[in-house]
Amino acid sequence: MDTPAHDVAWRLDERTLGAQASAADKLRFALRYAVLAPSSHNTQPWRFIVDGETVTLNADRLRALPVADPYDRELIMSCGAALFNLRVALSHFGLAYAITLFPSSADPDMLAQLRIVSGGHVDTSLSPLFEAIVERVTTRLPFSDVPIADDVRERLARAGQAEGVEIACVHADNERARLAEWIAEADRRQFDDPRFRRELAGWIHSSRRDDGMPAYAEGVSALLDFATPLVTLAIRTFDIGHGVAAAHQALASGSPLLVCIATNADDAPAWLAAGQALERLLLTGVGEGLTASYLNQPIEVEALRERLRATIKIDGEPQLLLRMGHGPRVAHAPRRPIEDVVS
Ligand SMILES: Cc1cc2nc3c(=O)[nH]c(=O)nc-3n(C[C@H](O)[C@H](O)[C@H](O)COP(=O)(O)O)c2cc1C
Fold this sequence. Notes:
- The strands form 3 sheets. A 4-stranded antiparallel sheet has the order 1-2-4-3, with helices on one face. A 4-stranded antiparallel sheet has the order 5-8-10-9, sandwiched between helices.
- The protein is globular and about 55 Å long.
- By secondary structure, the chain is of the alpha+beta class.
- The longest helix has 20 residues, at 73-92.
- The two termini are 32 Å apart.
- It contains 13 helices and 10 strands.
- Residues 225-230 have low confidence and may be disordered.
- Bound molecules: flavin mononucleotide.
């Protein structure tokens, strides 16, 4: 599918860098790849402050989702995904870097500081993932039921584990069906809350904006069971949780693979690691011809999180639940202008 003209953020051509580009130029250019990372509700809750060959990644908590994500867990995971893209792009450009996580004890919004290390060791394990950054897209439509081979599952798990998290791959029919029940249960609870519905509606836009989820994007309106452009009105007004629950249950049980990302701790460093692991897993999946979408509801609903952990038999704290498989190609979601997020 061609990229629509307005999705300029996705039409990147590294040749514009030129042979004489300095490390600082490459760092600025690499940030264009960082912002292509997924983020909850496409809030893009990040800010990058560049100073020569150093960049600081800050959480933009004005873009938080206080109902769905009261502790900014997913917000920080989104920033982690952006940091991972930055690492991949820099590695592809042949640059080594050093990262200090949470460099300021006074400022918890300062998540990471990355400094280019001239002549340092380039992480060549990351550069093969570069092409996948512009290919990756969240696909909310049904996947084919073609199973995912054991060796592919292992590569996906290893990709996440390389970022220090626990990965559980769930592919057995009965286990997927069980998880699909928790997902539906969580949907019903979330949509029962008018504050949740209002917050979601605030990030589904019926006309094109540079953030949020376009109501006309494949899978967004279909899942919510309403035709656009009435979708946001419908979410604000009615309890549509049962329709959403049924749709998500079918998507979950019909996808060949569910993947849970879990961490030892449940704090900001763990969430940042989970976000980097998420993007590493997703980009690795793209290389295998796979796409993904999110079914985090049983993690967002605290009461179901423990049940999920017991069902999947993981040791750590569940952070994200994805479904993966072979899906139809869908259009990219928009991105904010780079000048709005990089200074
Ligand atoms: C931490 C995190 C949580 C997310 N949770 C959901 C979710 O619960 N449901 C969903 O449909 N998409 C979810 N997404 C996907 C975003 O909506 C998606 O990344 C965003 O709309 C941008 O689209 P793109 O991934 O195609 O670039 C999540 C993404 C991240 C990073």
